[in-house]
Amino acid sequence: MIPPLRIAPSILSADFTRLGEEITRVVAAGADVIHIDVMDNHFVPNLTFGPMICQAIRPLVRVPLDVHLMASPVDALIPMFAKAGADIISFHPEAAVHVDRTLALIRDCGCRAGLVLNPATPLSWIDHVMSRLDLVLLMSVNPGFGGQAFIPETLEKARSMRRRIDAHSAAGGAPIWLEIDGGVKPDNIRAIAEAGIDTFVAGSAIFGAPDADGGYRGIVATLRNQLSAAMPRAA
Ligand code: DX5
Ligand code: ZN
Known about the structure:
Blueprint: E1 6-9, H1 19-28, E2 34-39, H2 51-57, E3 65-70, H3 77-83, E4 88-91, H4 99-108, E5 112-117, E6 135-139, H5 154-170, E7 177-181, H6 189-194, E8 199-202, H7 204-207, H8 215-228
Parallel strand pairs: 1-8, 2-3, 3-4, 4-5, 5-6, 6-7, 7-8
Helix pairs in contact: 2-3
The chain binds D-xylitol-5-phosphate and zinc ion.
């Protein structure tokens, strides 16, 4: 069986003057997940969305809302985003004091829990918390801005993380999504999938797609075509 591959547009690159329309259009075009980049001008230099935006988006679509917290401290934000309708909440271990406790808090709030690893952050952060994870998000750029170039070293990291997740599943562990974030484009998504990623965040590639090329439907179809050409991996 081929595991599901999901496309997760990051609204960071959407047109904020008509955000609702952007989200409904991108889901109608085939997006599987909506990725919400929360930046605090402290953990990362940029400043973006709070829980009110998440709450405003929630009734528009049925797909999971994937909240990526680039904020420190994180704990106080978790119940706020859960109440605002988040399905998945992930955070960076460097931004939390007690990683295990914060992961448990996310599940206690009724959400799926994820850990985000920056390009230079080692995989060993997940060693003792695998059973608390529903998602691992590998950053393929340094967090803070859309439109940056994919860091190629992330591919080897993805392969190692895939082996760890597969070993965890083989030992009876619950499924863990393996997501990538930053610089995902039609010309690299196939190689990224072949490295074992199953969930692909894409901001500028999707929201910057020209109408002349079919707009959001066109770019989502292009990304999916590339994924269907990827070497299948057993589930
Ligand atoms: C970066 C964000 C990403 C970003 C991806 O800090 O976490 O989600 O929006 O944007 P692109 O796809 O343009 O690299
Ligand atoms: Zn993100």
